[in-house]
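Quick one - inputs below.
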Amino acid sequence: MRQAGRYLPEYRAVRANYSFLELCRTPDAACEVTLQPVEILGVDAAILFSDILLICDSMGCPLVLDDGGPQFPTPVRTRADVDALIVPDPEEKLGYVMEAVRKIKRSLDGKVPLIGFSGAPWTLAAYMIEGKTSRSFEKAKALLLSDEKLAEALLSKITDSIILYLNAQLAAGAQALQIFDSWAGALSPEDYAKLGAPWIERVIAGLKRDPVNPQPVIVFGVETGELLAPLSRTGADVVGVDWRVPLSVARTRVGPKVALQGNLDPTSLFLPHDILAARVQHVLREAKAAGGGHIFNLGHGITPAAPVEAARALVEFVHRGLT
Amino acid sequence: MRQAGRYLPEYRAVRANYSFLELCRTPDAACEVTLQPVEILGVDAAILFSDILLICDSMGCPLVLDDGGPQFPTPVRTRADVDALIVPDPEEKLGYVMEAVRKIKRSLDGKVPLIGFSGAPWTLAAYMIEGKTSRSFEKAKALLLSDEKLAEALLSKITDSIILYLNAQLAAGAQALQIFDSWAGALSPEDYAKLGAPWIERVIAGLKRDPVNPQPVIVFGVETGELLAPLSRTGADVVGVDWRVPLSVARTRVGPKVALQGNLDPTSLFLPHDILAARVQHVLREAKAAGGGHIFNLGHGITPAAPVEAARALVEFVHRGLT
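Output:
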């Protein structure tokens, strides 16, 4: 999950000097907020501060971020729109991200690993077609499910762009990668088998990872209960699980080989610390019952009103382990 | 699902003369829009036009509906707030609903059955505490999960109110009841076992149904993949399934005795009719594979931009059956 954010006063202090996009595009500032959760909370990894939609902008679909959330004023709606998109050279168009990765790596100095990331093809396509966030993504589904050739062309272009982008992050020093399929849950399993999982598989197959110590790849989405099996077959090393699916159940769907990540309900941070501690124990017990690898995490992003003290206590409870 | 709505020009024409709440509170108008989908689409049942939050207002938590969605300006946040709520006499406080039920029954004249409905206790509690809709319902979860006695008191009062309300709908002539736990998916299975399912069970146990031909009870929520088993044990006759869970999978969780309802992705209405027809066939095949009872429906509510022609075609495709 993104760890830096509005719940941190230190983040808000930096953010006061930049618009959100400026913050993403200013490597020193992006570096500073990336490091904040490591220093303030004591988490075991840093996750690059950025936005999944920057790559869409660099493909030629201009991104606007204001109080109404991310928007694409010229959404992708036709084959001509798809053909006009480019597969960008990431160093040229998103060089500030790789510069941030290099700065963060130097600052971290091996203390904790740095996780790079990208949106997944379906999620990026959904945003670019819809033009804004949505509950149902009906324009995106209507277009991609009624025109297979257009879907293939758009998802191919996005996939190629993501591969170059993630490889550039790896080359800049990212030690793990997380692929966010934020809107996976908008699709039925049948549609995800066409528009979702195969494209993530293609992204992962295209990564140039260290042959000796390959950087792990995490895939994550919410409302993915019925998609855990296909997600586990994408080549990912880790599958994120939201709080709706007990880890022991997730394990039955994912099989024994892939690690699980998650899955504390983020709203647990609003509970008294004794209850929060009990909930951490519950997740750890579930992870033990599930067997295989486990990365403790929230089951979804941390919310802006979350108390920092609770986030700090959470990290401490996790570090104590199963008692 | 609610069938009347903004996608119907005939609905918009009636709605132009009333605010949404006025429409709910004017039996003649509520009757008119309830009948529209039966006449225009040819569906096999009518579902009462109303709003799940009216009962909260009648309990003493004033409801405001404007362009920002439903809001409770004085949300429930303390034990004193809970104690101030009443268990309303439905004929006194919500008499217009029962009058609408009686009018609709007379107008339908046995042509198709009429389904009454209510929100489920958790969903109503979540709204009343949060004060408005939410993605995370963090205030509601924080309050109910950190204060068990308050949770018991609030959910009991809501449950008692729902029982009286649904029994009044049955007495007025409703021939089936649907309980909407719209925010079930905000809760993990562990939390749903405390705040969700047991209270629905208590509602259903409190219903005064016809001893010879008991009116069926349908429970429905979205993002309920992991909650289908507990929902099937509430005493409900039918469990609604959203489009994320194939009906054959839902059947393995629900067991053989309870019927399934659903589960076409509502955005299918935006696809060309040949694809829509194929998707109907897919649901019907899944239902056949699942075995047991099945009520064809969308997997969630119809969206305002849905083409009426597609909704009409959908009903026709379903009536043709599995080919």
